[in-house]
Amino acid sequence: MLRFIRRRVYMETILLVDDNPLRASMRKSLFEGGVPEVVRAMDAGEALCLVESPEFAQNLALVVTGHVMTGISGPEFVAEFRSRMPGVPVLVLSGVPGAEQEYRGIPGVAISGSKSPDELRSLVRLLARSGQRQSA
After folding, report:
1. Averaged over 56-85, what is the pLDDT?
2. Domains of the chain
3. Is 91 left (phi over 0), alpha (psi -120 to 50) or beta?
4. Per-residue pLDDT tens for 101-128?
């Protein structure tokens, strides 16, 4: 008897870019309830490699990242990501005053300093549904 294994394809994948394992685990758990899959990248380089895969990129609904990152700044990462995936929204989580100014001129970026789990979950759901999936 032949048995076909059907691969699961997610239509709303969130890419979480976070170099802090504990914080990433908490955020991943927080966001998982609203979308089928949350994939964590440990840094900007890993995130950019992931979006090079057409299968991954076509299902990407949202990128969630921090403003302060190891090795590359949040604005540099977002600008590079935006050049590859112009239709996918980006949510930057930051408590740094004035961070919004550094993202001026980069379309499709939302900045949140909220620490409320309910507010973040709602914002992630809203932004994930607003994106246009595009191949890299």
Report:
1. 93
2. 13-116+124-130 (3.40.50.2300)
3. beta
4. 999 989 999 999 988 999 999 999 889 8
Say how far apart CA 66 and CA 1 lie, in whole Å: 50
Residue 42's nearest CA partner among 67, 16, 76, 60 is: 16
- Which of 35, 36, 60, 32 lies closest to 48 in space, CA to CA? 60
Cα→Cα distances 46→12, 17, 61, 121, 123, Å: 19, 9, 17, 24, 24
Dihedral, CA of residue 81, residue 85, residue 89 and residue 91, to nearest 10:
-10
Q: What is the pLDDT of residues 4-33, one digit of tens each?
A: 444 444 457 999 999 889 999 999 988 887
